[in-house]
Amino acid sequence: MTVGLQREKVGEDTFKGTDDKARVSGRGFSLSSLGAVYALIVILILWQVIGSMMDPIYISTPVLVYKNLYAMLFGQHQIWHDIAVSAVEMYVGLAIALVLGSVLGLLIGRSKVARSTLAPYINFLNATPIVITLPLMAIWVGVNQKARIIFIVILALWPVLLNVAAGCRNVSGRYTELGSSAGLTRFEMIRKIIVPGVLPYFLTGARISAGLVVIGVVVSEMEVSLVGLGYLLASYASGFQTAKLLAVFAISTSFGLVNVGVLTLISRKWAPWVATEKRGR
Amino acid sequence: MGAVDNGCLLEIKDIRKSFEGDKGKRNLILDDISLQVCKGEFVSILGASGCGKTTLLRIIDGLIESDSGEVILEGERVGPAQRRRMAFVFQDSNLLPWRSVQKNVELNLEAMKELSKAQRSERAIEALRLVGLEEVASRPPYQLSGGMQQRVGVARALARQPVVFLMDEPFGHLDNFTRERLQQEMSRLIERIGATVVFVTHDIDEAILLSDKIVLMRSNPGQVSRVLSVDLPRPRWKYNVRAHPTALALRESIVEELGLRIDDWEEVGGIQ
Predict the structure, then answer these.
(1) Cβ B88–A181 below 8 Å, yes or no?
(2) B-chain residues near A8 (CB < 8 A)
(3) What value does the mean pLDDT take over residues B185-200?
(4) Which of A18, B115, B158, B162 has CB atoms 3.0–4.6 Å from B119's, for a disulfide?
(5) How many domains does the structure of chain B reveal?
(6) Domain enclosing residue A206, as ranges
(7) Considering only alpha carbons, which residue of chain B is nearest residue A276?
(8) Does the beta-carbon distance from A273 to B142 stay under 8 Å?
């Protein structure tokens, strides 16, 4: 018998039983196509032309925004302190959300009792517009960094939690039966089957959370802060300093792009089969 | 090995199993199933979908527990030590995407602490060679076709060198061409290594091609309705077997027994 070594495309039937729909999908951002670059250039030129014809309060111009951005990063109005404050809140919040989300997700995914006990509250909180907890947080914890981090955690927790729980359900049955038939111990089952099986789900959730923490830090600093990117955004907005506002906007957005980009790369490296699985469909 | 008086390797005695149904009603899936598998025998369990044949196989492997009855392997009630001497081939090849083909095969050896790392890898390669896949040992499974993945699933069981193979419709998900080829390969392989197999299927021709003994199962509740022996010479070839008078007669009685014949065409709106 000879075996063809050509790479064969994975057929539809191969992954039957993979509950892919359960995985809440977040999309990576890439400017890979040349068309997108051209579009960006056109937009910038149009913005410059139209913006120069009216009061800079409205849409400002790319040149003005760039000048302000340069001053904020390297010039006279450096805002590194605010950037650092925001970055710390964001990443501490993200780290806590990832750990807490994974633990709760595993608990809910693995234990029937935990699921039936916690599910209604999780669904309730998940459906709540979480921004309304901010004023409460300020009352309970005060106008400080702790309040903002708690808010960021509550906001960014869900994608990880729900994805890890969905991953657990997908892994159980499909792969745990295999491990059980192979005679793995409980600990081996967790290490060899459950953790690697849930990992891609965790990464999918983490990528969405990594985007959400940027929203979390900006929103919370707009409301309960006197430092940080969100505070700057709010104060420039109320002062009609549109060019500065957009410069800070650009910095905040870069955080989001970097976060999501890094997690996309990690996913490709650690869970390459997920991309292949999708392509096969 | 502790041989048993009657020469039977695997004995299933009065297995009964019910599942929780709607409104707390219990549905009886398996009703007092008993059967015997001798050493080197290929036994097919044949029945319609939902007759409980897969459930029975999983009970034998200890993946689920029966309500009553017992499974005896080599004279002993099946426990962890006995389970280690059986190997399950899943319907869906069920390969772990984060492991290479070889590591997937080795998974089935990792509970055998008496094997060294080198021995494990040696046995995995040996098993892959038996199914003709040693060249793809280091590849990730998602790069293989469905048929190759299923062969890896078979190799995973072979690596264990079990006394009994338990196979749950291993070719059920494959396309027709691949299925035919794998059936033929399986037939060759079984004859070569003289394995003892309990094979679950709903394909009558597959059962005739591969088996020494066919256990027919009725549904609702699952019961053994008849046991037929397949007296066909080996080695068997799919196309010879299909036209063989013994096989035709056997097929006839299986169709009869399982109530698959439709006598009254008018009733089903068939040919007038």
Answers:
(1) yes
(2) 143-145, 148
(3) 90
(4) B115
(5) 1
(6) 80-280
(7) B142
(8) yes
